[in-house]
């Protein structure tokens, strides 16, 4: 057995709680939404039944309005282990925010590893309700794009794309950051950003998790993942013998793709759009590369040129930098402001394959495996040196390494 395979499998074993997997035993001791999707994609190679359990546990916490919460709290974890914990959210056992909808893709992948009609039939209506929530409750701009109401919802918390909309938010004070007990301050978001995250989350909570507040943004990463998820849902519908439903999912994907093209594309790249001002934010971040996931993306050649050009240097650096390498505020070690993350690398690799860029996809895949193995499955890495940062034994880094090796 490959040594890396065994070590990655051991990480998932250690992080397994019995019905779900924690991203990290120290820094993130609960179940996170998009982490679980990526983890299931790796776990299916070890145990399809555990992968199914991972996703079923997450969807057991789906809200009545269809949203899949971004954190499902583990009742056995001490409340002081993570902030903001269940007391903050006042939503029983979950947060009230969401994360990118990678789940349909994960459900399909788990089914492909070991076909299970009951699993598909159980999750299909839940996935539909989740996408329906995004399409209706989250269409703040009225353009057919899902808006996020908090940087945590992008999964890319302190991305430079959020600097402008976040500047409007007055930071909260009087809370204790638990993350700094486990992570180096220089690798984590700043105190000011954290204060703004807490303010936005409290305002949203106090509105009953309904109102659009100061931060309302259309993110190309989130929406590309949504369009790809609709394509996955179409494949699931075909498996379930529902061809008419499959056609509606493909149409939904096409609508999101068209809206992204019209509202977010500019000069060779996809940018986030601030719904409050109507302006596109100017940062080139890795989220703008994720529309490569869409196989019929008309602007793929121009986007690939940006990906391989000086801003991201795909194939010539480690992974996919989270921020523009040429930007003055690129920071190689700080979270989503420069470092490369395995999940983004894995998604971009899929996109490269879908656009026929097989050599570049293979090079990226090999680098992701080598870097993950060398850094003890680090949460993120310096794209220039490959040095690990953040947590080690990180769930999706281990899981996606397994998927790349399988
Ligand atoms: C807030 C769990 C999560 C990931 C996110 C990553 C980080 C949380 C945090 O960890 O966010 O949700 O406490 O910083 O940014 O992508 O899902 O691994």
From TrEMBL:
Coiled coil: none annotated. Residues 28-397 form the Mannosylglycerate hydrolase MGH1-like glycoside hydrolase domain. The keyword Hydrolase applies. GO terms for biological process: oligosaccharide metabolic process; protein N-linked glycosylation. Gene3D superfamilies: 1.50.10.10. GO terms for molecular function: Glc3Man9GlcNAc2 oligosaccharide glucosidase activity. The keyword Hydrolase applies. It comes from the Bacteria. Pfam families: MGH1-like_GH. Keywords: Glycosidase, Hydrolase. Belongs to the glycosyl hydrolase 63 family. PANTHER family: MANNOSYL-OLIGOSACCHARIDE GLUCOSIDASE. This is Mannosylglycerate hydrolase @ Glucosylglycerate hydrolase.
């Amino acid at each position: 057995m490959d040594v890396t395979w065994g070590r990655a499998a051991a990480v998932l074993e250690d992080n397994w709680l019995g019905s779900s997997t924690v991203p990290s035993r120290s820094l993130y001791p609960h179940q996170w939404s998009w982490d679980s999707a990526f983890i299931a994609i790796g776990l299916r190679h070890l145990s399809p039944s555990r992968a199914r359990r991972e996703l079923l546990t997450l969807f057991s916490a789906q809200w009545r309005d269809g949203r899949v919460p971004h954190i499902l709290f583990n009742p056995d974890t001490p409340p002081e282990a993570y902030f903001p914990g269940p007391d903050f959210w006042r939503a029983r056992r979950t947060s009230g925010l969401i994360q990118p909808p990678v789940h349909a893709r994960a459900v399909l992948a788990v089914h492909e590893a070991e076909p299970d009609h009951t699993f598909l039939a159980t999750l299909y209506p839940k996935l539909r309700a989740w996408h329906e929530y995004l399409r209706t409750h989250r269409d703040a701009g009225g353009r057919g794009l899902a808006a996020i109401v908090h940087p945590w919802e992008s999964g890319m918390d302190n991305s430079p794309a959020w600097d402008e909309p976040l500047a409007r938010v007055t930071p909260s004070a009087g809370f204790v950051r638990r993350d700094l007990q486990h992570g180096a301050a220089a690798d984590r978001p700043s105190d000011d950003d954290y204060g703004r995250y807490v303010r936005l989350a409290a305002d949203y909570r106090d509105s009953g998790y309904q109102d659009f507040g100061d931060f309302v943004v259309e993110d190309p990463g989130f929406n590309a993942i949504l369009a790809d998820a609709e394509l996955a849902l179409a494949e699931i519908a075909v498996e379930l013998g529902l061809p008419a439903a499959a056609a509606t999912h493909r149409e939904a994907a096409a609508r999101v793709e068209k809206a992204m093209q019209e509202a977010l594309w500019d000069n060779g790249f996809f940018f986030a759009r601030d719904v409050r001002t109507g302006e596109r934010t100017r940062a080139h971040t890795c989220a703008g590369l994720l529309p490569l996931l869409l196989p019929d993306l008309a602007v793929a050649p121009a986007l690939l040129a940006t990906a391989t050009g000086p801003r991201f240097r795909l194939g010539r650096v480690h992974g996919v930098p989270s921020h523009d390498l040429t930007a003055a505020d690129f920071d190689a070690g700080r979270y989503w402001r420069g470092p490369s993350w395995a999940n983004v690398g894995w998604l971009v690799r899929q996109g490269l394959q879908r656009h026929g860029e097989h050599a570049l996809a293979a090079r990226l895949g090999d680098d992701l495996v080598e870097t993950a193995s060398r850094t003890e499955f680090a949460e993120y890495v310096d794209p220039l040196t490959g040095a690990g940062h953040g947590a080690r034994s990180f769930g999706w880094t281990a899981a996606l390494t397994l998927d790349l090796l399988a």
